[in-house]
Design a protein that fits this description.
Blueprint: E1 9-14, E2 19-23, E3 27-30, E4 33-35, H1 42-46, E5 55-64, H2 71-75, E6 79-81, H3 83-87, E7 92-101, E8 104-113, H4 125-134, E9 146-147, E10 150-151, E11 160-161, E12 164-166, H5 181-201, H6 209-215, H7 221-232, H8 238-253
Parallel strand pairs: 4-12
Antiparallel strand pairs: 1-2, 2-3, 5-8, 5-9, 5-10, 6-7, 7-8, 11-12
């Protein structure tokens, strides 16, 4: 396996028998191409990929913390606060994630706005962030804001072309919570099977990619999460949110997710490259 690093892709051209990928240093003729370059996918844009753009919004800051006295570090928990959803137009939540950046303890704090209901007014993310930080004795003006879009999965979007597959954030993630790491692994699992099967059968149409994704033990959730997001973010009455979380709490008790030690994945497999 040849791994090329440190050279950006500058162009992609589709041909009948291969895909031409131009980088800063070389031109590569590939039998297949798996596009996994994030929500702002350059390759997807370059290929003028069809489909409705379903994009969530996100802003975040990192605040220095003392883990010895910070509750989230002590209890090893992350916080998802849906209160801002009931106070305005936010279609999402505020979060606190205890983290380490370059070895230093920080709290990653942010606001996620799904926009699963694009017809509704846009929330003022900076105002939501400022208010949430103020309630935690933090001033937004003291921190650098980072922001980026998240493309979420939509049933009508194109996921494959002959010799080309979309995967990970480039294809679309969870519209409900914006979660993409576990789903990226799921995309990779299916994409690897598709590529291996294409070479085995000499059929690079990738016509069954969507079906295989929807039959995957993890990826089948995506359509349901999108539907749930559109329902959950349609109404923002506080009493309705409380009822929803009360029901969710009881449902979780009936699943393995109630066990903190449960890992919903297969045992890791190590691959060594020489």
């Amino acid at each position: 396996v040849t791994i090329r690093q440190g050279e950006a892709v500058v162009d992609v051209i589709e041909h009948e028998n291969y895909v031409e990928v131009a980088t800063e240093k070389a031109i590569i003729h590939a039998k297949t191409l798996v596009v996994a370059d994030g929500s702002r996918s350059f390759i997807r844009s370059r290929l003028k990929w069809d489909g409705v753009s379903r994009v969530a919004r996100l802003i975040e800051v990192d605040t220095p913390e003392n883990p010895a006295v910070t509750d989230e570090f002590q209890r090893r928990v992350a916080v998802f606060d849906f209160t801002p959803m009931t106070d305005g137009d936010l279609q999402g939540y505020y979060w606190d994630f205890p983290s380490y950046v370059k070895g230093e303890p920080v709290m990653n704090r942010g606001v996620f706005d799904s926009r699963a209901r694009p017809e509704k007014p846009k929330a003022d993310l900076k105002a939501v962030m400022a208010e949430s930080l103020a309630s935690r004795n933090r001033d937004l003006d003291n921190y650098k804001i980072k922001g980026h879009p998240i493309r979420w999965w939509d049933a009508g979007n194109e996921l494959a072309r002959p010799r080309i597959l979309l995967a990970g954030d480039a294809a679309g993630v969870d519209a409900l919570f914006g979660e993409g790491i576990s789903l990226a692994l799921g995309y990779g699992d299916v994409a690897a099977e598709m590529v291996a099967d294409a070479f085995a059968r000499n059929d690079f149409s990738f016509a069954s990619y969507r079906r295989r994704l929807q039959n995957h033990w993890l990826m089948w959730q995506l359509p349901w999460r999108t539907r749930l997001a559109k329902m959950a973010y349609f109404l923002n009455y506080p009493w309705l949110v409380k009822i929803g979380w009360a029901i969710a709490r009881q449902v979780i008790k009936l699943t393995r997710w109630r066990d903190p030690s449960f890992v919903p994945a297969e045992p890791p497999r190590l691959v060594t490259f020489n």
